[in-house]
Amino acid sequence: MTWLVTGGAGYIGAHVVRAFLAEGMDVAVVDDLSTGHRRFVPERVPFLEADVNDVEALAAFMAEQSVAGVVHVAGFKYAGVSVSEPLRTYRTNVAGTAAVLQAMEVAGVEAIVFSSSAAVYGTPDVDTVTEDTPTAPESPYGESKLIGEWLLADQGRARGIRHTSLRYFNVVGSGAPELPDTSPHNLFPLVFTALAEGRVPRINGDDYPTEDGTCVRDYVHVADLAAAHVTAARRLAAGRRLRPVYNLGSGTGTSVRKIVEAIVAQTGADVLPEVHPRRPGDPARIVADGSAAAADLGWAMRHSLAQMVSSAWAAHSAAPG
Predict the structure, then answer these.
(1) Which residue has the higher pLDDT, 126 or 40?
(2) Are 103 and 244 in a shared domain?
(3) What is the DSSP string of 194-233?
(4) What string of H, E and C letters represents the secondary structure of 238-281?
(5) Domain shared by 244 and 114, yes or no
(6) For 22, 163, 210, 295, which has the most beta carbons within 10 A of its beta carbon?
(7) Does position 117 have pLDDT exceeding 80, yes or no?
(8) CA-CA distance, 208 to 188, in Å (whole number)?
């Protein structure tokens, strides 16, 4: 039984691939390498370089590899950039998801795990979000992920596919030194790069009603996230009924100050973060209740904050220049 990981040459997708292999499960990868890296995919893993909108190529590859299910990670994942590039976002995330579902139908593949996002919640009016918290995305990216969830649900009703969507919060760390986060928009690589260039990291606002005055966010280790995908795939393959969506969050959260200070300490830099004014619209606290995922998918935070930072720094330091 082979599972296809779309976007399997990217930061998160590559960790999902490793998680499947660690469980002795066959896996294949499709990626257009627009942001992924061919070196992230182990040589023994069948690989197709293709756009997920290419239904014919995807369906043929699924049939060739005897694919039983798909983990759909491929996507345009930059919420801020999506505001200025909405059409690119919708083409990749909405049309691309529809194309993956169409290819599955052609190839007779009946199970899918979808990479969704906390961005579907927008700025919630509660401190801790559950799967029942109203969705109110505030960017084309968040909207595109919510539409992706709808597409899975609609195809489930129409064609009987088994599916679930995993809503990510802030994914950090590394499960292997050769798998760094290379995104130009994510917090950890941004701070690492700033420190390497002699710039001081910044904190936006220190007067929030939180323990240290800075915003509290939910950070999860990428290896823990990847393991949840494998469990979801196993459950779907076994015919088990899963909820349509799950939050993958810590339930507690970490302040921005603690995150930045932990990164600075790990790198050995002799600087203090600069405090800047609040950014408009930043809520004081967004944390996810992951109890549903814990019950159904064995979800757990197995890595501490220190491990998140040290593993990310080790991978960043080992990355090719």
Answers:
(1) 40
(2) yes
(3) HHHTTPPPEEE-S-SSSSSSS-EE-EEEHHHHHHHHHHHH
(4) CCCCCCCEEEECCCCCEEHHHHHHHHHHHHCCCCCCEEECCCCC
(5) yes
(6) 163
(7) yes
(8) 22
Helix (H, G, I), strand (E, B), or coil: what is residue 122? Answer: coil
pLDDT band (50, 70, 90) for residue 252: confident
CB 115 within 8 A of CB 73: yes
Instruction: Output the pLDDT for position 289.
Output: 94
Q: Same structural domain for residues 200 and 277?
A: yes
**Site of tokens 């060739």:** 64
Closest CA to 165 of 296, 22, 48, 45: 296
Angular region, 198: left φ>0, alpha ψ -120 to 50, beta rest: left
Residue-number span of the structural domain to which 156 is assigned? 2-172+219-248
pLDDT at residue 296 is higher than 90: yes
Selected catalytic residue, list 141, 168, 208, 246: 141
- Per cent of the chain over pLDDT 90 is 72
pTM of the model: 0.94
For the sheet containing 26-31, what is the strand order? 47-49, 26-31, 2-6, 67-72, 111-117, 162-168, 245-248
Tokens of 217: 């966010």
Q: Which residues pair with 5 in a beta bridge?
A: 29, 71
Quote the DSSP letter at residue 291. Answer: H
d(CA 140, CA 120): 10
Tokens encoding 299: 């979800």
User: In the annotation, is 168 catalytic?
Assistant: no
99 three-state secondary structure: helix
């993956």: which residue's tokens?
100
Question: Domain of 75: which CATH number?
Answer: 3.40.50.720
- Is the pLDDT reported for residue 255 higher than 80? yes
Whose tokens are 């969507």? That residue is 165
Domain count, the chain: 2
Residues 60 and 106 in one domain: yes
**287 neighbors 127 (Cβ within 8 angstroms):** yes
Measure the CA–CA gap between 52 and 32, rounded to whole angstroms. Answer: 8
